[in-house]
Amino acid sequence: MSNEPREYYTDERWQNWIERLREEEIDPEDEDSARLLLNLQDDTAIAVAKIITDFDEGELDEETALSELEDIQQVVLSEVEFEDEEKAMLIDGVQTSLMCVFHSAQEYVVGGPAEEGTIEEYVEAAAEAEQEEELDAALGYCVQAGTLVIAGEEMDIGMADELEFGLVAEWVNGIDSLQTAMRDPEVVEEEDE
After folding, report:
1. φ and ψ at residue 166, rounded to 5 degrees
2. At the top level of its lineage, which domain of life is listed (predicted)?
3. pTM of the model
Protein backbone atom coordinates (compact mmCIF):
# COMPACT_ATOMS: atom_id res chain seq x y z
CA MET A 1 0.00 0.00 0.00
CA SER A 2 1.47 3.36 -0.90
CA ASN A 3 0.56 6.11 1.51
CA GLU A 4 0.78 8.81 -1.08
CA PRO A 5 -2.70 10.12 -1.76
CA ARG A 6 -3.52 10.13 -5.45
CA GLU A 7 -5.72 12.76 -6.95
CA TYR A 8 -8.21 10.79 -8.96
CA TYR A 9 -10.46 13.71 -9.68
CA THR A 10 -10.85 17.24 -8.39
CA ASP A 11 -13.63 19.72 -8.01
CA GLU A 12 -11.55 22.06 -10.15
CA ARG A 13 -11.51 19.53 -12.98
CA TRP A 14 -15.29 19.20 -12.90
CA GLN A 15 -15.71 22.99 -12.76
CA ASN A 16 -13.48 23.34 -15.83
CA TRP A 17 -15.84 21.10 -17.78
CA ILE A 18 -18.85 23.02 -16.51
CA GLU A 19 -17.26 26.32 -17.51
CA ARG A 20 -16.65 24.97 -20.99
CA LEU A 21 -20.29 23.96 -21.18
CA ARG A 22 -21.35 27.42 -20.05
CA GLU A 23 -19.17 29.11 -22.66
CA GLU A 24 -19.87 26.97 -25.67
CA GLU A 25 -22.93 26.93 -27.85
CA ILE A 26 -24.33 23.51 -27.13
CA ASP A 27 -26.37 21.69 -29.71
CA PRO A 28 -26.76 17.97 -28.95
CA GLU A 29 -27.26 17.32 -32.66
CA ASP A 30 -23.85 18.86 -33.33
CA GLU A 31 -20.94 16.45 -33.22
CA ASP A 32 -18.60 18.73 -31.24
CA SER A 33 -21.23 19.41 -28.61
CA ALA A 34 -22.08 15.74 -28.32
CA ARG A 35 -18.38 14.96 -27.97
CA LEU A 36 -17.90 17.58 -25.25
CA LEU A 37 -20.67 16.00 -23.20
CA LEU A 38 -19.33 12.52 -23.80
CA ASN A 39 -15.79 13.57 -22.87
CA LEU A 40 -17.03 15.15 -19.68
CA GLN A 41 -18.81 11.90 -18.82
CA ASP A 42 -15.91 9.68 -19.90
CA ASP A 43 -13.48 11.81 -17.91
CA THR A 44 -15.36 11.01 -14.72
CA ALA A 45 -15.72 7.35 -15.69
CA ILE A 46 -11.92 7.21 -16.21
CA ALA A 47 -11.34 8.50 -12.68
CA VAL A 48 -13.71 5.81 -11.38
CA ALA A 49 -11.93 3.16 -13.47
CA LYS A 50 -8.58 4.18 -12.00
CA ILE A 51 -9.91 3.79 -8.46
CA ILE A 52 -11.28 0.34 -9.29
CA THR A 53 -8.00 -0.69 -10.93
CA ASP A 54 -6.00 0.46 -7.91
CA PHE A 55 -8.44 -1.39 -5.66
CA ASP A 56 -8.11 -4.57 -7.74
CA GLU A 57 -4.32 -4.28 -7.63
CA GLY A 58 -4.33 -3.89 -3.87
CA GLU A 59 -3.18 -0.26 -3.91
CA LEU A 60 -6.40 0.78 -2.17
CA ASP A 61 -8.31 -1.08 0.49
CA GLU A 62 -12.10 -1.29 0.40
CA GLU A 63 -12.66 1.62 2.76
CA THR A 64 -10.28 3.94 0.90
CA ALA A 65 -11.68 2.99 -2.50
CA LEU A 66 -15.24 3.70 -1.31
CA SER A 67 -14.19 7.00 0.21
CA GLU A 68 -12.44 8.04 -3.04
CA LEU A 69 -15.56 7.13 -5.03
CA GLU A 70 -17.71 9.06 -2.58
CA ASP A 71 -15.49 12.14 -2.98
CA ILE A 72 -15.85 12.16 -6.76
CA GLN A 73 -19.55 11.42 -6.56
CA GLN A 74 -20.12 14.45 -4.33
CA VAL A 75 -18.33 16.68 -6.82
CA VAL A 76 -19.97 15.34 -9.95
CA LEU A 77 -23.52 14.79 -8.75
CA SER A 78 -23.88 18.10 -6.94
CA GLU A 79 -26.46 20.38 -8.50
CA VAL A 80 -25.23 22.55 -11.33
CA GLU A 81 -27.02 25.83 -12.01
CA PHE A 82 -27.40 26.68 -15.67
CA GLU A 83 -29.48 29.55 -16.93
CA ASP A 84 -29.82 27.73 -20.23
CA GLU A 85 -32.50 25.09 -19.72
CA GLU A 86 -31.23 22.85 -22.46
CA LYS A 87 -27.75 22.79 -20.93
CA ALA A 88 -29.28 22.07 -17.54
CA MET A 89 -31.11 19.09 -19.06
CA LEU A 90 -27.98 17.82 -20.78
CA ILE A 91 -25.83 17.99 -17.65
CA ASP A 92 -28.64 16.32 -15.77
CA GLY A 93 -28.49 13.48 -18.30
CA VAL A 94 -24.73 13.14 -17.80
CA GLN A 95 -25.19 13.07 -14.03
CA THR A 96 -27.92 10.44 -14.34
CA SER A 97 -25.62 8.26 -16.45
CA LEU A 98 -22.77 8.72 -13.97
CA MET A 99 -24.98 7.84 -11.02
CA CYS A 100 -25.05 4.27 -12.35
CA VAL A 101 -21.27 4.35 -12.80
CA PHE A 102 -20.75 5.25 -9.14
CA HIS A 103 -23.25 2.70 -7.87
CA SER A 104 -21.70 -0.01 -10.04
CA ALA A 105 -18.21 0.82 -8.79
CA GLN A 106 -19.33 0.83 -5.16
CA GLU A 107 -21.17 -2.45 -5.58
CA TYR A 108 -18.12 -3.99 -7.23
CA VAL A 109 -15.80 -2.84 -4.44
CA VAL A 110 -18.10 -4.14 -1.71
CA GLY A 111 -19.49 -7.29 -3.31
CA GLY A 112 -17.55 -8.03 -6.47
CA PRO A 113 -19.24 -8.76 -9.81
CA ALA A 114 -22.73 -10.20 -10.02
CA GLU A 115 -22.45 -13.95 -9.56
CA GLU A 116 -25.00 -15.03 -12.10
CA GLY A 117 -26.84 -13.61 -15.06
CA THR A 118 -25.51 -11.81 -18.11
CA ILE A 119 -25.26 -8.13 -18.88
CA GLU A 120 -28.07 -8.53 -21.43
CA GLU A 121 -30.35 -10.22 -18.90
CA TYR A 122 -29.78 -7.48 -16.33
CA VAL A 123 -30.39 -4.70 -18.84
CA GLU A 124 -33.59 -6.40 -20.05
CA ALA A 125 -34.75 -6.85 -16.46
CA ALA A 126 -33.97 -3.18 -15.83
CA ALA A 127 -36.00 -2.08 -18.85
CA GLU A 128 -38.95 -4.18 -17.68
CA ALA A 129 -38.69 -2.81 -14.15
CA GLU A 130 -38.65 0.73 -15.54
CA GLN A 131 -41.85 0.04 -17.46
CA GLU A 132 -43.41 -1.13 -14.20
CA GLU A 133 -42.14 2.12 -12.63
CA GLU A 134 -39.95 0.14 -10.23
CA LEU A 135 -37.01 2.48 -10.57
CA ASP A 136 -34.98 1.24 -7.60
CA ALA A 137 -35.13 -2.27 -9.01
CA ALA A 138 -34.23 -0.96 -12.48
CA LEU A 139 -31.17 0.81 -11.10
CA GLY A 140 -30.23 -2.32 -9.15
CA TYR A 141 -30.25 -4.40 -12.32
CA CYS A 142 -28.19 -1.82 -14.22
CA VAL A 143 -25.70 -1.77 -11.35
CA GLN A 144 -25.32 -5.57 -11.58
CA ALA A 145 -24.69 -5.20 -15.31
CA GLY A 146 -22.13 -2.52 -14.44
CA THR A 147 -20.25 -4.84 -12.06
CA LEU A 148 -19.95 -7.40 -14.86
CA VAL A 149 -18.55 -4.76 -17.22
CA ILE A 150 -16.02 -3.78 -14.53
CA ALA A 151 -15.06 -7.45 -14.23
CA GLY A 152 -14.21 -7.42 -17.94
CA GLU A 153 -17.35 -8.72 -19.63
CA GLU A 154 -18.29 -7.07 -22.88
CA MET A 155 -21.48 -5.06 -23.16
CA ASP A 156 -22.85 -4.69 -26.65
CA ILE A 157 -23.59 -0.98 -26.91
CA GLY A 158 -26.13 -1.79 -29.62
CA MET A 159 -28.36 -2.74 -26.70
CA ALA A 160 -28.68 0.91 -25.75
CA ASP A 161 -30.18 1.72 -29.14
CA GLU A 162 -33.00 -0.73 -28.52
CA LEU A 163 -33.97 0.82 -25.19
CA GLU A 164 -36.73 3.34 -24.99
CA PHE A 165 -35.50 6.75 -23.94
CA GLY A 166 -35.54 6.90 -20.18
CA LEU A 167 -33.49 6.26 -17.08
CA VAL A 168 -32.33 2.78 -18.05
CA ALA A 169 -31.06 4.12 -21.38
CA GLU A 170 -29.14 6.84 -19.49
CA TRP A 171 -27.73 4.31 -17.03
CA VAL A 172 -26.64 1.95 -19.80
CA ASN A 173 -25.00 4.93 -21.48
CA GLY A 174 -23.04 5.42 -18.24
CA ILE A 175 -22.02 1.76 -18.18
CA ASP A 176 -20.77 2.16 -21.75
CA SER A 177 -18.53 5.06 -20.59
CA LEU A 178 -17.29 2.87 -17.77
CA GLN A 179 -16.56 0.04 -20.20
CA THR A 180 -14.52 2.38 -22.40
CA ALA A 181 -12.69 3.71 -19.34
CA MET A 182 -11.87 0.25 -17.97
CA ARG A 183 -10.39 -0.73 -21.34
CA ASP A 184 -8.41 2.45 -21.94
CA PRO A 185 -8.18 4.75 -18.95
CA GLU A 186 -6.24 7.52 -20.67
CA VAL A 187 -8.70 8.70 -23.30
CA VAL A 188 -9.50 12.23 -22.22
CA GLU A 189 -6.14 13.27 -20.83
CA GLU A 190 -5.29 15.55 -23.74
CA GLU A 191 -7.78 18.09 -22.37
CA ASP A 192 -5.32 18.88 -19.60
CA GLU A 193 -3.17 21.96 -19.98
Report:
1. 170, -165
2. Archaea
3. 0.90
